[in-house]
């Protein structure tokens, strides 16, 4: 490749040739030693039509090698990265296992390898391309339905097909500009919600994987295609983020809200800057919950021992990396505030307050940007999420400060109670807006449906009910604390899981 | 690795076009047709460096030796390249072999999954001997020596005591051409038993009736129209090689017509998918034929020259003018009744669709590639007429042995003459070839338990190999009954790499190698060419390449795993240690007479003496022929074989020959000793002279190996052996014809295959099991609604004539209403700890008198093993075993077990549980007796006092004299 700058590798999957034999699947497993329960590539199958005008449609399903790959943007350590030749590759030695790439991928093409606990996916068999060999799936395919080539080389078959024939990509609206082009694919396979999910936990010759983190494939209700389409084969897809992430949103809300609320009360005159609640209790509470937040995040990593890589080799487009720095900065501000309090330097306490407040707000809100980086998960890309998280921080802050205020600053208890009630009312307003305003995509609508029905529904409705109780804070005082925090945990869990409950592949 | 180091590595090992060509090596272009190669250049196969995928992006180098072998999953026998790690001397992976002419470097899912079978933690690694009662599940370790001595002593005793017919070898997929048949011939026993009558003999019989040869070799790649009655884009004969060529042809504009009751992956690709009422396929094909005849679009010249119309006229219309025009008139009159409307009534396919399809077929000219294998021919009473009516279309259009047409398989097959050729046996085993089935194309294998019962017979020794009759055959409980009864089976030796339901009931379980652990030689009709493929123990080849001497494959195989070639040689020596029985000489070295023949010499001899062109090619590469085959694994002898029937007989052949009234040429001269010993039908005249050709338009041509030496539109064999009504291609109403089905019955299609499994042989491949592991009952939404709003996943009970099984529903538009379908492969079971844990349910087997029951006690669970993956097994379901509930349905002519079942489908009854199986043995026996009534025995119908037409193909064909029926008065 000396004479040219770089190729731009792309693949064409010719579904008009594909016979659904799964050779690519096992050849890939063999070449890349991919364990059971996960897969870099598989052949999805959807039956369309009514007897005898029926057809089984296949889709070789895998990483799209996006030109604008959300996984590389989301990765905090550049473990997922784009090579100059366009291949989205990965380096397992620096993967911390945060699963941000999995959350970010609109195609659910990435997984954690249960053997080495690092993220992996199809990388066009880069180790073969680099020694002049075609990828394993291309070589094995009995019917030459898979081909690889350089988009910059007009004589390559790939370039010819892409430029001269009717090709499609999966989910172009995600603006990832995939370099995996499908020829002759059916809409019912390309759209993850076009085909009905079969009942009974079955596919035509296999079973639907079960498990609490399992994302069911196909549409569980009324599918989006008006063609009669039934999913007849798919594989396991796991929701990347579980309880630790839910709890992290709540603990982070407490950490951000505790400090923010006392500052608000100071500005409003409800608290004095010298109050121990302001000088000691709130910053300590915030720091403690930042610590818990950090612990939860680390605990959720597949490689907790590598957590420091976020700070030592950050990839700064990643909101996970940015969040780490925001949290760190916020923690430093809190430490500075505590130091000033110890030195009895009220001026410094007051001086730190403004940047501290900003950092608290950013700490609470950045998660909205983190979730929005999950490009495939439409439900999370709500413009309401940022303000909503801020309101949640106020709830969490007010609720967690309330018992301390009873002890350290009884005069502020009423203020806190009213703030808690008001913020909770606002939270319910956000929740109501989320629930009632029509979402723009089938994906988001299905996620919303999942949030308020089935297993998640019980969390969402518990959260709502507890919030209703919390509104009575001015009258029930300390009795509102646990409902307030419980409401957030329950609601956030339903929200976080619902966002991941919709199949992407 | 730095950029410059990387560049150096590239220069050293790059398979990219420019680098390869700069080094003067072979560039293997791939599907992408760019500078990337599909395979490393063959010049570097001995020491190829690849980058390790697991440590990527660190560029860590791994050194491999690439050694070819042949896949042993389905019958396609595709080439594989084993990547032998030079540091560990273990196999890292299998890829395709670009030097293989059939598979051309490509594979299906089962090729790469071969590595799973090699590393399978449940595989059998050393010989085992039964400890408790047979079938009790208790085993002790034994040695090869002990097992060989015991088995050899029993064989010797049986031979010496003239109980030759008590020795039986029962094989599923042979995976080789003739080695084991010759072992049996050397022992002088008619002990070959195959699986063919539960597989393909229905299809074969129709072809054999036409052309003597019992299999087609369609040239899909060059066709204009392809008509498939089976699912060749996903199943065997020859899945991957044919799928390549079918799709290639489709992309070149060839039209694909698929007849299949269910939506197969093949039907998915069809331009016309015709899902008929099961059993009506022949009626549809006859309507197409009728259209071609009535519109005079048949190849008149071909029909005139190559159909046996003269014989037909002289036998059936002796009073008519013996002219071709007469025949055309009769042909047209006879087939006029097969109208599209009649076909519509029988098949449920609209006449207009059939007419459109007939037009497409008629437009194919001589480029009509047709194929049927199993499917309808294996499903229905009279299913053999399906392949016969299918080939009728080729015969009408002259698309026989033409580019894009259909060849006789033997012309596209090469079986090299071996080092020793033992004579034909002097015995006739009527346990496999009973007199009731004189025309059965193959052994009546699946009747064995019934025949043993009927005749109060016994087998001293029963070998099962790559075969699982307890599971695969109909009425498996009868097999368990027979195998557990020591008065019926003296010793059961299971030759198998892995546990099976049949091996549970063995006395010895002897572990044999997988695809990369054994020698075999074979050739298949994947396209218009002749090639041989070599299966070899790859570690043996690799270590020999590194300078070691390996004399026994056990030296390189895991544990004490062996291979059959060496096993049979060793066993035969122990049967006849001093050579007194005349057996040992067939297993001796030619170089050093009196010493044991080794695998190296056996194959070296074949490659040096019997494969034209191979020695020359090897010399050009500086190799011996054996070294060449060890290095490349396959060799193409010839391409474009062409129309051998049109080949004129040579002067030498014609010398001393005679021509009879029907222009057939016979000779007394012995058959010339060519290098290709592919089995051939052997028509003779009443004096026993060989038929060698036929005079057509004044020229003596080779013709076809049928009694008429032509394509037999009219089968004098069927006419003379009691089946005159079926002497012509015709439609036989199936045993599941709607008129016989009854109100509440549906037709169960039980034989369809999935592309990712192969019979009961792939349970040991975790990647395949993960993809496909259950077999719900395909049922149309209308039928599901009729049964009470049945939804996918609901439990159903399927009742056959002799029992029932309980499984889940798969409600799909991919099946004809009134039919249900359940995939083959699934429902594997084990009785205890022994067995394939990743793919079998633990069951309780219970027998009370005639009532057999199986209950599932546990599904699959993850388990600890040498393979960390077994802890990650996530599926629990393995499907339900249906074949146990099928009584035998032997077709009275072809001998094929007619698989389709008339069943009653209901919601599961109260108390039914998933996986329940129940069978009433007496009901199953009654069905056997009922079908036996349909036969026309050789005793009553043989035209010449023989057991079977001598000319027909038969494995291990005995000497002609043995064909004489025994004197009934002398019969004991």
Structure summarized in a few sentences:
Chain A is an alpha+beta fold and 505 residues long. Chain A has 18 helices and 11 strands.
Structure description:
The complex is a heterodimer of chains A (505) and B (972). By secondary structure, chain A is of the alpha+beta class. Helices cover 49% and strands 10% of the residues of chain A. Chain A has 18 helices and eleven strands. In chain A, the strands form four sheets. In chain A, strands 8-1-10-9 form a four-stranded mixed β-sheet. A three-stranded antiparallel β-sheet of chain A has the order 3-2-11. In chain A, strand 6 (111-112) and strand 7 form a beta hairpin. In chain A, helix 8 crosses helix 18, helix 11 packs antiparallel against helix 12 and helix 13 packs antiparallel against helix 14 (413-436). Chain A is elongated and about 80 Å long. The mean pLDDT of chain A is 96. Chain B has 972 residues and is α/β, with parallel strands linked by helices. Chain B has 31 helices and 36 strands. The longest helix of chain B has 17 residues, at 144-160. The mean pLDDT of chain B is 96. At the A-B interface, helix 1, strand 2, strand 3, helix 4 and helix 5 of A face helix 1, helix 2, strand 2, strand 3 and strand 6 of B.
């Amino acid at each position: 490749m000396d004479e040219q700058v770089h190729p731009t590798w792309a693949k064409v999957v010719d579904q008009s040739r594909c016979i659904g034999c799964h050779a690519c699947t096992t050849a890939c497993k063999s070449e890349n030693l991919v364990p059971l329960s996960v897969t870099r590539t598989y052949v999805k199958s959807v039956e369309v039509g009514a007897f005898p005008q029926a057809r089984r449609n296949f889709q070789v399903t895998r990483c799209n090698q996006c030109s604008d790959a959300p996984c590389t943007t989301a990765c905090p350590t550049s473990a997922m990265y784009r090579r100059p030749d366009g291949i989205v590759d990965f380096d397992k030695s620096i993967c911390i296992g945060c699963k941000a790439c999995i959350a970010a991928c609109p195609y659910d093409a990435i997984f954690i390898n249960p053997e080495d606990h690092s993220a992996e996916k199809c990388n066009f068999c880069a180790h073969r391309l680099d020694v002049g060999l075609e990828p394993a799936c291309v070589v094995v395919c009995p019917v030459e339905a898979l081909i690889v080539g350089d988009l910059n080389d007009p004589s390559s078959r790939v370039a010819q097909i892409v430029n001269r024939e009717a090709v499609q990509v999966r989910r172009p609206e995600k603006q990832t500009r995939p370099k995996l082009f499908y020829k002759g694919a059916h809409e019912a396979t390309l759209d993850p919600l076009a085909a009905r999910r079969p009942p009974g936990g079955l596919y035509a010759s296999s079973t639907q994987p079960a498990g609490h983190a399992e994302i069911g494939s196909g549409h569980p209700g009324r599918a989006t295609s008006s063609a009669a389409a039934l999913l007849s084969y798919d594989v396991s897809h796991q929701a990347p983020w579980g309880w630790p992430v839910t709890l992290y949103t709540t603990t982070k809300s407490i950490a951000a809200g505790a400090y923010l609320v006392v500052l608000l009360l100071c500005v409003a005159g409800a608290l004095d800057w010298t109050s121990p609640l302001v000088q000691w209790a709130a910053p300590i509470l915030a720091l403690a919950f930042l610590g818990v937040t950090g612990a939860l995040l680390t605990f959720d990593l597949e490689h907790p021992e590598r957590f420091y890589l976020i700070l030592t080799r950050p990839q700064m487009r990643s909101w996970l990396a940015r969040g780490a720095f925001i949290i760190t900065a916020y923690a430093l501000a809190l430490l500075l505030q505590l130091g000033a309090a110890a030195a009895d330097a009220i001026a410094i306490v007051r001086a730190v307050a403004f940047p501290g407040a900003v950092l608290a707000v950013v700490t609470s809100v950045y998660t909205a940007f983190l979730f929005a980086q999950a490009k495939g998960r439409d439900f999370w890309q709500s413009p309401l999420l940022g303000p909503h998280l801020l309101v949640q921080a106020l709830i969490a802050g007010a609720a967690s400060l309330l018992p301390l205020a009873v002890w350290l600053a009884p005069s502020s208890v009423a203020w806190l109670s009213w703030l808690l009630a008001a913020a909770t009312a606002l939270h319910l307003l956000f929740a109501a807006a989320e629930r009632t305003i029509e979402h723009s995509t089938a994906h988001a609508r299905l996620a919303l449906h999942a949030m308020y029905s089935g297993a998640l529904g019980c969390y969402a409705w518990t959260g709502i009910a507890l919030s209703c109780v919390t509104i009575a804070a001015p009258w029930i005082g300390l009795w509102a604390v646990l409902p307030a925090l419980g409401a957030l945990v329950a609601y956030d869990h339903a929200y976080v899981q619902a966002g991941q409950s919709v199949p992407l592949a | 690795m730095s950029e410059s180091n990387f560049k150096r590595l590239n220069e050293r090992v790059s398979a990219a076009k420019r680098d390869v060509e700069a080094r003067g090596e072979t560039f293997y272009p791939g599907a992408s047709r760019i500078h990337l190669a599909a395979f490393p250049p063959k010049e570097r196969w001995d020491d190829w460096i690849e980058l390790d995928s697991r440590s990527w992006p660190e560029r860590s180098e791994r050194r491999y030796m690439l050694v070819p072998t042949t896949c042993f999953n389905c019958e396609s026998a595709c080439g594989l390249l084993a990547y032998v790690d030079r540091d560990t001397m273990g196999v890292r992976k299998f890829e395709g072999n670009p030097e293989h002419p059939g598979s051309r470097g490509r594979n299906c899912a089962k090729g790469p999954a071969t590595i799973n079978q090699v590393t399978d933690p449940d595989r059998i690694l050393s010989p085992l001997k039964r400890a408790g009662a047979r079938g009790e599940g208790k085993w002790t370790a034994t040695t090869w020596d002990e097992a060989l001595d015991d088995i050899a002593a029993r064989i010797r005793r049986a031979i010496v005591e003239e109980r030759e017919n008590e020795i039986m070898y029962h094989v599923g997929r042979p995976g080789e051409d003739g080695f084991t048949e010759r072992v049996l011939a050397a022992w002088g026993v008619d002990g070959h038993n195959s699986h063919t009558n539960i597989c393909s003999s229905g299809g074969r019989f129709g072809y054999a009736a036409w052309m003597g040869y019992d299999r087609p070799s369609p040239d899909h790649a060059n066709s204009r129209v392809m008509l498939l009655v089976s699912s060749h884009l996903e199943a065997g004969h020859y899945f991957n090689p044919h799928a390549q060529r079918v799709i290639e042809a489709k992309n070149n504009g060839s039209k694909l017509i698929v007849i299949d009751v269910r939506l197969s992956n093949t039907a998915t690709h069809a331009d016309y998918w015709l899902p008929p009422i099961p059993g009506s396929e022949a009626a549809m094909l006859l309507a197409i034929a009728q259209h071609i005849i009535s519109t005079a679009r048949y190849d008149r010249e071909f029909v005139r020259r190559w159909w046996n119309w003269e014989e037909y006229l002289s036998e059936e219309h002796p009073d008519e003018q013996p002219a071709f025009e007469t025949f055309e008139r009769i042909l047209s009159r006879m087939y006029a009744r097969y109208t599209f409307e009649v076909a519509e009534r029988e098949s449920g396919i609209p006449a207009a669709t059939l007419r459109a399809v007939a037009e497409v077929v008629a437009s194919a000219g001589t480029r009509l590639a047709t194929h049927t294998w199993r499917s309808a021919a294996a499903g229905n009473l009279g299913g053999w007429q399906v392949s016969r009516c299918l080939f009728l279309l080729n015969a009408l259009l002259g698309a026989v042995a033409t580019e894009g047409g259909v060849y006789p398989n033997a012309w596209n097959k090469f079986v090299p003459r071996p080092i020793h050729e033992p004579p034909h046996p002097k015995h006739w085993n009527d346990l496999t070839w009973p007199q009731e089935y004189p025309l059965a194309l193959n052994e009546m294998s699946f009747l064995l338990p019934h025949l043993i019962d009927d005749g109060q017979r016994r087998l001293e020794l029963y070998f099962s190999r790559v075969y699982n009759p307890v599971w695969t055959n109909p009425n498996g409980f009868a097999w368990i009954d027979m195998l557990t009864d020591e008065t019926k089976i003296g010793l059961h030796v299971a030759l198998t790499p892995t546990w099976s339901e049949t091996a549970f009931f063995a006395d010895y379980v002897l572990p044999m190698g997988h695809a990369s652990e054994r020698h075999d030689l074979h050739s298949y009709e994947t396209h218009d060419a002749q090639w041989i493929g070599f299966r070899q123990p790859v570690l043996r080849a690799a270590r020999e390449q590194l300078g070691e001497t390996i004399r026994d494959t056990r030296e390189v195989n895991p544990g004490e795993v062996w291979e059959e070639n060496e096993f049979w040689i060793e066993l035969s020596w122990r049967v006849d240690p001093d050579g007194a029985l005349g057996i040992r000489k067939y297993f001796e070295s030619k170089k050093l007479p009196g010493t044991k023949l080794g695998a190296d010499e056996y194959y070296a001899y074949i490659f040096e003496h019997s494969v034209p062109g191979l020695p020359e090619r090897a010399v050009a590469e500086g190799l011996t022929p054996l070294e060449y085959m060890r290095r490349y694994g396959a060799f193409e002898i010839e391409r474009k074989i062409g129309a051998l029937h049109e080949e004129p007989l040579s002067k030498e052949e014609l010398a001393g020959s005679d021509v009879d009234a029907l222009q057939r040429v016979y000779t007394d001269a012995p058959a010339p000793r060519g290098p290709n010993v592919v089995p051939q039908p052997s028509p003779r005249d009443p004096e026993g002279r060989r038929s060698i050709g036929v005079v057509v338009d004044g020229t003596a041509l080779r013709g076809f190996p049928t009694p008429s030496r032509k394509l037999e539109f009219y089968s004098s064999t069927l006419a003379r052996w009691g089946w005159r009504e079926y002497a012509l291609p015709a439609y036989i109403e199936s045993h599941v014809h709607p008129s016989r089905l009854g109100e509440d019955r549906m037709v169960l299609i039980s034989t369809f295959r999935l592309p990712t499994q192969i019979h009961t042989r792939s349970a040991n491949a975790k990647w395949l099991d993960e993809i496909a592991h259950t077999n719900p009952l395909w049922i149309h939404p209308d039928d599901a609604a009729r049964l009470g709003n049945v939804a996918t996943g609901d439990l159903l009970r399927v009742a056959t004539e002799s029992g029932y099984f309980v499984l889940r529903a798969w409600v799909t538009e991919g099946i004809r209403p009134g039919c249900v379908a359940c995939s083959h492969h699934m429902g594997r079971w084990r009785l205890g700890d022994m067995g394939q844990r990743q793919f079998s349910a633990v069951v309780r087997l219970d027998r009370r008198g005639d009532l057999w029951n199986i209950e599932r006690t546990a599904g699959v669970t993850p388990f600890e093993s040498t393979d960390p993956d077994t802890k990650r097994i996530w599926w629990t379901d393995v499907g339900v075993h249906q074949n146990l509930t099928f009584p035998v349905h032997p077709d009275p002519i072809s001998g094929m077990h007619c698989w389709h079942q008339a069943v009653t489908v209901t919601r599961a009854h109260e108390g039914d549980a998933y996986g329940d199986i129940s069978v009433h043995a007496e009901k199953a026996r009654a069905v056997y007796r009922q079908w036996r009534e349909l036969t026309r025995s050789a005793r009553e119908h043989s035209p010449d006092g023989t057991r079977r037409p001598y000319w027909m193909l038969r494995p291990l064909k005995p000497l002609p004299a043995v064909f004489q029926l025994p004197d009934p008065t002398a019969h004991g």
